[in-house]
Amino acid sequence: MNTLGLIGAGLLVGVVGTVATVLSLPVQDTSPDALTASLHAQLLTLKGLHQVSCEALFGLQIADAQCFLSHAPRDRLKARTEEVLNGYESGGWSNDYGVWGAFYHDRRSGLAFGVNVLDIEGDSELRKNPLTRGSVSVLNFVVDPPQPGTDH
User: Fold this and answer.
1) Is residue 148 part of a domain?
2) Disulfide check for 139: which of 5, 13, 74, 80 has CB 3.0–4.6 Å away?
3) Cβ within 8 Å of residue 85, ≥6 positions away
4) Residue 118 in contact with residue 98, Cβ under 8 Å?
5) What is the pLDDT of residues 46-88, one digit of tens each?
6) Residues 6+ apart with CB under 8 A from 134
């Protein structure tokens, strides 16, 4: 299974546990960087989630991607991620070769972002990566750059 194709499509994610408190961070800045920082803070409320380098994890550099590892099983991580991101518009999740992905839209900024949740066991390259030792799933996300003609 090739997770790189999904990453290139603008989806990324990884981690969960128990939702401690869902943060609603009022951010006045509507830039992609501000949305990325807000999502990062919200996702870190998931118990057992820790950030890792996407380049070290997937072997390629992905601009502005955020990657996390989790001890929670993929389906539990996905469910907890949905809870944390429930304030954003989504077209729902889809599964492509074991990778669950969803596109979201932030009404306030007008920006879109993609999230992926995958099981490490289902990906031979991730299983071989020493970074994933002791982890069960990956969560990654990336905020799409603004489209030409927008005010960002």
Assistant:
1) no
2) 13
3) 39, 42, 104, 115
4) yes
5) 988 999 999 999 988 888 899 999 999 999 999 999 999 999 9
6) 71
Range of the domain at 10: 3-143
Please tell me the pTM assigned to this model.
0.77
> Residue 115 in contact with residue 12, Cβ under 8 Å?
yes
* List of residues 6+ apart from 122 with CB closer than 8 A: 1, 98
Q: In one letter, which amino acid is 129? A: N
In a domain, 77, yes or no: yes
Specify the amino acid at residue 111.
L
* Amino acid making up residue 99: V
